[in-house]
Design goal:
By secondary structure, the chain is mostly beta strands. It has a domain of 68 residues. The protein is built from no helices and five strands. Strands 1-3-2-5-4 form a five-stranded mixed beta sheet, with no helix packed on it. Strand 4 and strand 5 form a beta hairpin. The protein is globular, with a radius of gyration of 13 Å.
Length: 98
């Protein structure tokens, strides 16, 4: 399996906490999301609170300074790598034509 990447929020200099709104939902865990870019594999994101996601569901995720629609590849509880508190949240996809 290719090396996993995570979309982690970077804390402000001198502040060990990630910016507000970047912590995972209360259920914890992480989602592996495939993006429509030539990347090595899926990126990991925090699941949205109160939203059950399964492989194949579309989500809107931040990547750098933009947002992209991707597909959930895996929806699992925990996975090694970037700390769950640093994962950026995955949200619902934009409605068609928006």
């Amino acid at each position: 399996m290719p090396h996993r990447r995570a979309s982690a929020a970077r804390p402000a200099p001198g502040n060990p906490e990630p910016p507000a709104g970047t912590a995972p939902g209360p259920q914890g865990g992480r989602l592996s999301v495939l993006l429509p870019l030539p990347l090595e594999g899926p990126y990991d994101y925090a699941p949205s609170p109160g939203r059950a996601l399964a492989p194949g569901d579309l989500v809107r995720v931040p990547l750098g300074s933009r947002e992209l629609t991707g597909a959930v590849w895996e929806a699992e509880g925990t996975r090694p790598g970037i700390a769950a508190a640093r994962l950026r949240p995955a949200g619902p996809p934009s409605p068609p034509g928006a």
